[in-house]
Amino acid sequence: MARSSSDNLDDGTSGAGEGSSYTYTDDAAGYDNSFSKRRSGGGSSGSANNSNSIPILKRLFVGCEDDAPGSVHRAWAVTVMFMVIFFTVSIMEARKLNDEATGASVALQIASYWSAILHLILAILGTFILKRFSTAFTVGCFLGVTVVVSQQNLLLFAAFVRYQHGNVVSNVIFAYLALALFLLLTFFSLILGHFRHYIIVK
């Protein structure tokens, strides 16, 4: 009888041990799976966060999904090239407006010089942010500045496109170049905002 009870006790103990071992294995496996999911989710945070973006932007930039950071950098490279051209044209436009014989507005002369300086600073700082310092704060500020500068270029286009003082041809060239930069900066703001999670370094 003692042996039988001992066997029963051993069986119960071993059964409990097996049962508790089985339960522990399930918990450990569940923990490992959830931990793995969190790690994999953290590694693909760009795609996970990007799934909540605006549907029209997802359709617009569907061809850029495979190389989102590269698409942002290429868009910025084209924008910088136009900004360098715009800087040169702005200085030339300001000098022509500075001629007293033309009777050009002093305010537009200042606007030409200021826009040249602003675009040069934006080109330098924007390149630095994208290449070296892509935090959430800097990318957010950069995105806001590009939106504001794009709107300024639209105002420059409206101010210069039919301005009759100074050199009329130069005014038209300056105006349409400002319009081109308005479109480029708007496009860049959209693509940067859409793919910002791929650019931001945590």
From TrEMBL:
Species in which this protein is naturally found: Discostella pseudostelligera
Transmembrane segments: 75-92, 112-130, 137-161, 173-195
Annotated spans, Disordered: 1-25
Key words, A-Z: Membrane, Transmembrane, Transmembrane helix
Domain of life: Eukaryota
The protein's name: Uncharacterized protein
